[in-house]
Predict the 3D structure of the following.
Amino acid sequence: MTLTPVITEHWDAPDLYTIEGYRRFGGYRALESALKQDPDAIITTIKDSGLRGRGGAGFPTGLKWSFVPQNDGKQHYLVVNADESEPGACKDIPIMMANPHALVEGVIISSFAIRANHAFIYIRGEVPNALRKVANAVAEARRAGYLGTNVLGSGFDIDIVVHAGAGAYICGEETALLDSLEGFRGQPRLKPPFPAVAGLYASPTVINNVETICNIPYIIDRGLDWFRQFGTEKSPGFKVWAVSGHVNNPGIFEAPLGITMRQLLEYAGGVRGGGNVKFWLPGGSSVPLLTAEHLDLPLTYEEMAAAGTMLGTGTPMIFDDTVSVVKAVTRWLEFYKHESCGKCTPCREGTYWITGMLETFEHGHGRESDLELLVSACNQIAGRSFCALGDAAATPYPAALKYFRDEFVAATHTPVDDTFDPVASYIHAGAAAR
Amino acid sequence: MTISDQTLERMRELASRYPQPRSALLPMLHLVQSVDGEVTTDGINACAEVLGISPAEVTGVSTFYTMYKRKPVGEHHIGVCVNTLCGLLGGDAVYDALSERLGVGHNEPTADGKFSLERIECQAACTHAPVMTVDWEFIDDVTPAAAVDVVDRLERGEQVLSTRGPAIRTFQATEHTLAFPDDGLAGEGTSVDDKMLAGLRYAKEHNMSAPAHGQEA
Ligand SMILES: Cc1cc2nc3c(=O)[nH]c(=O)nc-3n(C[C@H](O)[C@H](O)[C@H](O)COP(=O)(O)O)c2cc1C
Ligand code: SF4
Ligand code: FES
């Protein structure tokens, strides 16, 4: 399967981030055609496109939009989730830095479709360079008459606020994001009611990922047949894959859904030093890891589910033989422990407890009987937590144990840094010189 | 430091951007850090006054988010990503080198107030691992030696460019951008680098492209 740059097609044009650059390649053409359509027709188009959310869960976008009650006399809101903080996920921030107008155009069309007059782009605070690029694009779009009142004479009013977060992974969870955007601690809300009915300020709200929204102008501009030729029946379209880890040429690769990890690896120059893939994760630390035996599976929502994992954010992390899986998993659990919002007991206490126990293994004095105890602890968190962060925290360990039990057993007597020299996993030779 | 009338005015401006003013609290706290260098009691009181909520509520929000500091931060705040991917690919060594060079640990400022150091989580830049940040601007694909060199140059007052963004300014300047993102710097520096172009270049070299509209299979 070949690479198919769409969202990334013109990233080598130095002025793509400006409105002139974006328009030179057909930018805002989709908006002009969208504003001449009935909003419901756009929702139908997106439904028929089969586009699925790129934020991790893969929920059908058009279906989500159709849940917004129409003609209810209430304000509707569109909120773009640009919190990208999932370990391994690194595609939305590059999209915003390189092609911010695709996001802005997508926001305007999507808002028109769901009849929202206010849209918010919630960008994690730690990435000012994405924030300023998007803010600049919004200001340019406003000057060009694409934002504000009566956009292009259509009678549609829309404004976008670019909003910075302040460092909290949980704010990527959509209801926590809403609380954060309302000026509160970012803690998840009970669902139902779902945001489509009672979201921001208790009004109907659609929350979509950056990459999801960036698909919209291309679908509107080029049509359903064009879009559905990419990918599979259940996973149509293309994907901005971000390949990281022990590969020769890590980076951004855009290709249809259904490409395999082996093909992506080839485009990324293969494993460094001609080495082997030890384990890899299709999309973030919250999806179960896979091994070299899974490299030929199509990267689609359905095939990843069948393999016992998830496509997640579609940002594969590759680890070679130099990496201790015990150490990798422990580090991820330290992350979840740090990011647990504290609202519910299984996650708050469980992440603390599991992390502590994993650290005993990392230091070489885990107890073999604890291997099963850890599995049962994960089972107590998964499905019993208030939000999906708890489920995510319960994910890395069982998958790692399934494929690498011997390594955990070895960590009952030998510190992992003795078995796996940390320096060997560094990508820069001599990085440990100091 | 106390919050000036001008800052109060800017806070009201932020509050007016949202259908409900309280939505501006996060940007307002960034603004407080841009003028005071940390979340001060005066800053908390000012936010509370502008939004008509209690200082305790503002405090409760500010303590939830790691970017809000209740201790002084250096003129330059340095982050090193030690999440799994960066950490194991060399970020751990980068952190150790910087900690040794600066003589400080996690979330501590140097005695001269010039720098502070933080172990940070994934920065959505794993393709560019190991990643460090200075005042939250990216310094990508860094080695311990390169990281120490950044500190050396900043200490000498030399200009340091972010690898994907403008020249490094200060922690407080970045905090201002977080409150008012349209900072006029969108055109500064490079933002699209080799790693972001890896796939596009490969595609061009190998004559790969997405089928154009009207050429559906
Ligand atoms: C802990 C946690 C963090 C999340 N972080 C993000 C994120 O940074 N960006 C994102 O788009 N979705 C994130 N999600 C998923 C969102 O809750 C939501 O499903 C998504 O934004 C919906 O957009 P989509 O349908 O376009 O994918 C996160 C979920 C959880 C549980
Ligand atoms: S699962 Fe964790 S992050 Fe989610 S509500 Fe419970 S404590 Fe908070
Ligand atoms: S792990 Fe460091 S940027 Fe993602």
